[in-house]
Amino acid sequence: MQSQKQDVREPDNTQGSAATTVRNAQPISAGHSVPAGRRNAVQHKPFIRRALNRILHLLCRFLPGATTLRPFLHRVRGMQIGKNVWIGEDAYLENEFPEQVEIHDGAVVGLRTIVIAHTRGTGRIIIGKDVYIGAGAVIVTVANRTLVIGEGSVIMASSLVTGNVAPFTLYGSDASKPLARITKPFVASTNYEDFMMSLRPLPR
Question: 138: closest CA among 124, 154, 157, 122?
Fold first, then answer.
């Protein structure tokens, strides 16, 4: 059992401090933990299971019940979800391999958040206790890597997360700002090249 936890939770990314708070913790549901040696096996699911998973995932995205029905249906899909988790509308949480995602107690997943735990093979994503993920954030990992968002962290809306986030960290990009003055509106009759040529520097 100990070796299984090490396989699942030891991240390959940088910022290892993010994993410190969860590396030695018990999985939310040990029955759903998938050791590294079995990650290829989960890719060969029966067609009926995959189809049911897709149907449940679609229901999770649009049915009401941010703290009740949605977390429940995601658990049925195989996702490991703790207590008092809030999942916003249209959150896209790992369609194909839900068992590769953990969401710990008290976490908030904003509406239209995207969580993808597979790119050229399955990885793993762990969202720590009391994490807040703003609307429209995108969290992605790749094959054989574990991405950990540490306890108490806040991910700003529309942020892209591809590596570990240390505990109690505000993570995101600067707010959007004006970039250029437009002299030709980008309407249906305007092609991209003409639009780009119409841009002018903003006054200093």
Answer: 157
Residue that wins the pLDDT comparison between 49 and 114: 114
Sign of CA dihedral 157, 163, 164, 169: negative
Question: Which residue type is seen at 191?
Answer: N
Extract the tokens encoding 96.
């194909």
138: helix, strand or coil: strand
Q: Which residue has the tokens 């600067």?
A: 174
* Eight-state DSSP code of residue 27: P
Distance in angstroms (rounded) separating the CA atoms of residues 87 and 77: 15
CA distance 22 to 37: 21
pLDDT of 43 reads: 56
Token pair, residue 128, equals: 């720590």
Contact status, residue 145 vs residue 166, Cβ threshold 8 Å: no
Q: What pLDDT was estimated at residue 47?
A: 83
Instruction: Give CA–CA dist 154/52, Å, rounded.
Output: 33
Mention every residue, 6+ apart, whose C-beta is less than 8 A from residue 99. Answer: 32, 34, 42, 78, 79, 80
Residue 10: pLDDT band (50, 70, 90) is very low
CA-to-CA distance for 69 and 110, rounded, in angstroms? 16
pTM of the model: 0.73
Q: Around Cβ 120, how many Cβ atoms within 10 Å?
A: 8
Quick: pLDDT tens for 126-160: 999 999 999 999 999 999 999 999 999 999 999 99
